[in-house]
Amino acid sequence: MENKRINGNDLIALGFKENHTLGVALKINSKRHGYTREEMLEKFRSVLEDPMSYSEDAVFGILSSAMLGQDAVDKSLIVLNETPVDYAIYGASEIETGAKAQMNVAMKLPVAVAGALMPDAHQGYGLPIGGVLATSNAVIPYGVGVDIGCRMALSIFDLPASFLEENVMLLKDVILRNSKFGAGNGYLRHERVDHGVLDNKLFTENSLLSSLKDKAWTQLGSSGGGNHFVEFGVVEFEEKDEVLNIERGTYLGLLTHSGSRGMGATIAAHYTKLAKSLCKLPYQAENLAYLDLDTHEGQEYWLAMNLAGDYASACHEVIHEKITVALGAELLAKVENHHNFAWKETWNGQEVIVHRKGATPAAKGVMGIIPGSMATPGFLVRGKGESNAIQSASHGAGRLMSRTQAIKTFSAHDLKEMLTDKGITLLGAGMDEAPMAYKDIHAVMASQKDLVDVVAKFSPKIVRMADDGSREE
């Protein structure tokens, strides 16, 4: 009991309300300040009973101040709706309680119109990862996410699957020479490539973006950390796809996953802070602060977000072009899709802003890619346009456990054995990305049969990820 951390429920049991003061108390508790758990709880109880007597206290003075000023703060807060707007949940039995709780809060926002939870959903900041939220004329920076425009791209070549088996060393070399990984990493000046996205006038009109242009150029065509990857694999079509005009068979494929790198992360941090200063929400909804699209700030973020999305697309374009040239292969088809983005769409006859934080667009006929893990298949899909899902699907298998828990749980031997068994060559990556840390992709796909049709299966064979322990930017 002594080592058990004090959490929000413990403080609520003492009498704290779910507002800003609860957050202040939890921040104080994170340092413990030499007190035992029981001593800390007693201090919190005492401050709650008589905050004035702690106004000069070195540790609890900030809590005293927050409590004494809370009445004034509460009057300026935007009021949440008492009950959440109804929303659809796909694969509910496999989704953690925390993700559902976050979605419930999001659906109480006064701007919330509709929502859905995808079967790969898990807890995030503000909107859960795997959460889809339609709002009325408002955009939520944390509803988009930190890695703005994080993207999947699949190139299918006119080479048979046997080419991969016969040329493993060549393909390893191609990936290593034409990709770069890790948070903060980029290319030296003589290695950089040019792209039209860098000519966007926003780089001169917006001072924040202007300061980020050189970093954007440095990182153009590179990938971040965490679950971002570049991989060769086998693309299997069980029947001819008339739209793509690809015959039944197996082909060499290149699949990439990364986003807007440092530029996107900086945009997200800047406009989230701005949104929180302009949109005062109750404590439990603070990370869902939104910007009205009729305001200068809302339009500024919207333009910056779209630029970050274009930049993420350009990064994939550079990687795929380099590798296609290196292979000397003919491209049969290329499919791409964003997740971590917001779109203006029509839902039930109403124009809305659809946030897909870790969700794939799946309007009728729209193609997307839903990856599994480094050792499990991904799927090329075509959307069915399901209205209850706000025309969305999952963006992957979804994490089964945190990165820290995965590192503590699995061994390098277990991972190596699994990869060897499946004939997969891994370049980089840490135990936090072990396939066992992810949900069963087949169960996830079974939960969204009403949302997408499977067009082809992608089985990874040569996988490159960051090896510096860095996470997505």
Descriptive overview:
This protein is of the alpha+beta class. Helices cover 35% and strands 23% of the residues. The strands form 4 sheets. Strands 5, 6, 7, 9, 13, 14, 16 and 17 form an 8-stranded mixed beta sheet that branches. It has a 5-stranded mixed beta sheet with strand order 1-2-3-11-10. Helix 2 runs antiparallel to helix 4 (61-68) and helix 11 (207-219) runs antiparallel to helix 12 (261-278). It is globular, with a radius of gyration of 24 Å. The mean pLDDT is 92.
Give a concise summary.
Its EC number is 6.5.1.8. Helices cover 35% and strands 23% of the residues.
What characteristics describe this protein?
473 residues, alpha+beta, eight-stranded mixed sheet, five-stranded mixed sheet, 35% helix
